[in-house]
Write a structure and sequence with these properties.
Elements (H helix, E strand, L loop, with lengths): L4 H9 L4 E4 L6 H8 L6 E10 L2 E8 L2 E3 L1 H8 L5 E2 L2 H8 L17 E4 L5 E5 L5 E6 H8 L2 E3 L2 E3 L1
Parallel strand pairs: 2-7, 3-6, 6-9
Antiparallel strand pairs: 1-8, 2-3, 2-5, 4-10, 7-8
């Protein structure tokens, strides 16, 4: 098993999980194939900025994208933007492509898209590493807010 802050955090959490080492990939579709899961089970962890120094993480199924109007409505804000790579690294300790809520340098509020169910295959904190676990366990452990915040890609 690859040792990352994320894999250590999920082990310490006591959640039932499987760490999958699958190697580097170039797309979410390739990640799904290598993880042996459907694309909608691959969960992207996206850092969003609500304001200066105010970040949150949005969990998005691999076949969907953030619907910014829905996300703004769910959060009751009029403006927000995607955090750039430097900001995301500063608050999570992870580079794009490896970002995950587990083991994040700064615990961030988490919004989980309502379409997520069953198995979730979330990033494991390093390229080519995933953590497979039950969506309900993931949401409960993270204290995530569940809301409809995405649309089909």
């Amino acid at each position: 098993m690859t040792d990352t802050p994320a894999t250590r955090a999920v082990v310490e959490s006591g959640l039932g999980h499987e760490v999958v080492d699958y190697g580097r990939v170039a797309s979410v579709e390739e990640a799904a194939e290598k993880r042996a899961v459907p694309v909608h089970r691959v969960i992207k962890s996206i850092v969003v900025r609500r304001g200066e120094g105010d970040y949150l993480m949005v969990l998005v199924p691999g076949d969907r994208v953030i619907d910014w109007a829905k996300l703004r409505r769910a959060l009751g804000v009029s403006r927000m933007s995607l955090a750039d790579a430097g900001e995301a690294f500063e608050v999570t300790g992870y580079r794009p492509g490896t970002i995950t809520p587990f083991g994040s340098k700064t615990p961030l509020p988490v919004i989980a898209d309502a379409s997520m169910e069953g198995l979730a295959s979330i990033g494991g904190g390093a390229p080519g590493v995933a953590i497979n676990l039950d969506t309900a366990d993931l949401v409960r452990r993270l204290g995530a807010t569940v809301a409809e915040v995405t649309k089909p890609a």
